[in-house]
Amino acid sequence: MTIKKNLKGGFLRLKPDVFGYEKNDKEKYKCDWEKRKVKNPNIYEWWKLVQDNEPYKFFITLTFRGGTSINKMIQYINHLLDRYNQKIYRRSYKRKCKFVEGFIFQEDYKSVNCGKNRKHVHMLIKCTDQYNFKEHKDIFIKAASKIIDGKKRHVFTEKNIDFQKYRDDGAINYCMKELDDKNVDDRLRTIGMEGVF
After folding, report:
1. Does some domain include residue 137?
2. Residue 8 has pLDDT above 80, yes or no
3. Which of 26, 68, 85, 112 meets the CB 3.0–4.6 Å disulfide criterion with 64?
4. Full residue range of the structural domain in which residue 182 is found
5. In this structure, is residue 11 part of a structural domain?
6. In DSSP terms, which residues pair with 185 in a beta bridge?
7. Is the dihedral of CA 177, 134, 2, 145 positive or negative?
8. How many other C-beta atoms are found inside a 10 Å radius of the C-beta of residue 72?
9. Does residue 192 form part of some domain?
């Protein structure tokens, strides 16, 4: 897997065109999931569900401060998704049943710059084609900039949001790399009209 260091963001990001496997190596990719299926049948079923819901529009990574609980993370993401939905589908998005859909995948990681354990969430989302990539990214970042924590600090800044186009199903494999049957119920969730559930 090819990775690069992002000193501003403080965590490792994949190069945009590489998601942990070679595009011409589909058989090896399937074979890895066949091996995981034996030890983790539940995660394999989740993988199939995520795979069946392709194509996604965006692959997003959100990084949180150390010590942020999963419940707080979900609360912040739901607030962000509500704002994002209002911007792209208007305030009546729930009444019209038009909203962002997809999945979130929660991970712990050690920050390259500060050595602290932090959490981040990968998101695979589907949404309207009404806007181009740059417009979607700008709308998302603007919505994220409005989210404030209990200490009146911004939860998200541009440096802890990685917003990319979804390219292929290698992103699914990357999002699920740390999941197994023991943690999948806590770390993989769906996104619907009410946000993350």
Report:
1. yes
2. no
3. 68
4. 18-196
5. no
6. none
7. negative
8. 16
9. yes
- pLDDT class of 97 with cuts at 50, 70, 90: very high
Asked if the model's pLDDT at residue 66 lies above 70, the reply is: yes
Within 13 A of 73's CA, how many CA atoms are on the CB side? 25
CB hemisphere CA count around 175 (13 angstroms): 30
Residue 165 phi/psi, 5° resolution?
A: -70, 145
Kindly report the average pLDDT of the chain as a whole number: 82
Contact 105, 175 (CB under 8 A): yes
3-state secondary structure of 24: coil
Q: How many domains does the chain have?
A: 1
Phi, psi of 22 (to 5 degrees): -80, 140
Q: What percentage of the chain carries pLDDT values higher than 90?
A: 55
At 29, list the tokens.
């990719």
| Contact present, 77 and 104 (Cβ < 8 Å) | yes
Give how far the C-alpha of residue 165 lies from the chain's centroid of Cα atoms, to the nearest Å.
12
Q: What is the pTM of this model?
A: 0.80
Q: Which residues contact 148 (CB under 8 A, 6 or more apart)?
A: 154, 155
Task: Return the structure tokens found at 59.
Answer: 């692959």
Amino acid (one-letter) located at 39: K
Q: Are 33 and 51 in contact (CB under 8 A)?
A: no
How many whole angstroms separate alpha carbon 180 and alpha carbon 144? 30
**Contacts (Cβ under 8 Å, ≥6 apart) of 177:** 20
For residue 159, the 8-state DSSP code is G
